[in-house]
What does this fold into?
Amino acid sequence: MKNKAIALSLLMASLITMHSCKKDKSDTEADNALYSEVASTGYSYYQNGNVLPRVSPSPHGNFKLRFNAKALSALDSTGELPPGSSFPSGSIIVKEVFSGSSVSLYAVMKKDPSNDNAGNGWVWAEFNPDGSAAFSVVKKGDGCISCHSGTPNRDLTRTFDLH
It folds into this structure.
């Protein structure tokens, strides 16, 4: 009986370990998939690609902001999202944060309300320049959403009101 209990305990520990490894792999795959979209071409820069200064209380430094075609389609003639409007699903917004003259971080929002990793309709992530996740999509915007929920409501984006 004691051997059965030990064997059962070892089996359970193995299953838990295998499940944890599988979850870690899928988390990494989700981050990698989003980074691949961020690294692709076809983005348009906000304000002609000028480096914009950090504005308090943002945790990000000086940055450039770019939009994929879906996100760009929601902007008005002034290049901004009108208050009360929303970005369509599939929109990607990338903030290229600079340290000196080089990009030190990519802060990313992807509008994907049906994604299991979405927080308030967006998938949130931050990536190092090498593509590794600095803030994984599995965190669902924890620590981002509260600051991005400002007024006026521009679908959790802040840049239009700060620049």
Remarks:
- The CA atoms of residues 86 and 155 lie 5 Å apart.
